[in-house]
């Protein structure tokens, strides 16, 4: 059934089909129909002090505004991450800005944090019936100077804290000018320290500690990745998400749209993402959980991430190409790999 739906959706402009798919998934959630599509087995796991019914989640980016939380949850995801959301609404980059590369099971996007702002997202969260693990991914507005980025992150953190199971800090999108510079050196340390202090204040205010995860890029050298890992440990972060999209074009050379600017996701980023997970795991030595995302298009790819050191996985582009069946395939593969150990 999904193969037919994909064939129809892929005849449309990529961004139009994305919006339509989210609308349809949201409608299916409101009607309770999505539960009929995919019955995902339970594989409980505890990470960041949170109880997950299974370790396969929806990555940020598919539901930027939280418009279809119930719909995605009913498909069997063990957790949902919405966003990236910014303090103020913004349109994102000029269209066209989303491109499919089906021969490589890949997507290139330069969306630019298009979203309706944190206040709209919170209204959608409050309206949702979902009571499972919900991550909210936060970023800065495109016109906020990088040297003042911490203000945007703290504003978003203040607003979403009471409504999130965990909060993801996105410092790795390639589509907001200067954002990736926040992953390095003093800029990273200052941001993380400010977030940690605010997290402690909010914990007291709300009587509840909400974990902070930092999402990083796959394009750093091994040495840079190690430095990031040390900074996360030094500042007391709760998790790292590896990875965002890549600026590289390995695996799509010569394909239509391969030369479009933006971040590449899907199958071609798989090995690069898994390598980053492996480097992080070696440095973190189990002191900080890793959520792996990037290139999971088959169940076995999820087990590769877990074997590299991840505690949870997320899917995005693989879901576009394979549909809800990928969720169960990933859970089943992780369970089978665990039974063999």
From TrEMBL:
Q: Could you tell me the superkingdom of the organism this chain comes from?
A: Bacteria
Q: Which reaction does it catalyse?
A: (S)-dihydroorotate + a quinone = orotate + a quinol
Q: Which Gene3D superfamilies match?
A: Aldolase class I
Q: Cofactor note, please?
A: Binds 1 FMN per subunit.
TM spans, by residue?
none
Kindly list the positions annotated as binding substrate. 64, 109-113, 170, 175, 244-245
User: Gene Ontology terms, cellular component aspect?
Assistant: cytoplasm; plasma membrane
Instruction: Kindly give the SUPFAM superfamilies that the UniProt entry links to this protein.
Output: FMN-linked oxidoreductases
Q: Which GO terms describe its biological process?
A: 'de novo' pyrimidine nucleobase biosynthetic process; 'de novo' UMP biosynthetic process
E.C. number, please? 1.3.5.2
* Pathway per the UniProt entry: Pyrimidine metabolism; UMP biosynthesis via de novo pathway; orotate from (S)-dihydroorotate (quinone route): step 1/1
Q: Per UniProt, what is the membrane topology?
A: Peripheral membrane protein
Q: How does it assemble?
A: Monomer.
Q: Which family does it belong to?
A: Belongs to the dihydroorotate dehydrogenase family. Type 2 subfamily.
Write down what this protein is called. Dihydroorotate dehydrogenase (quinone)
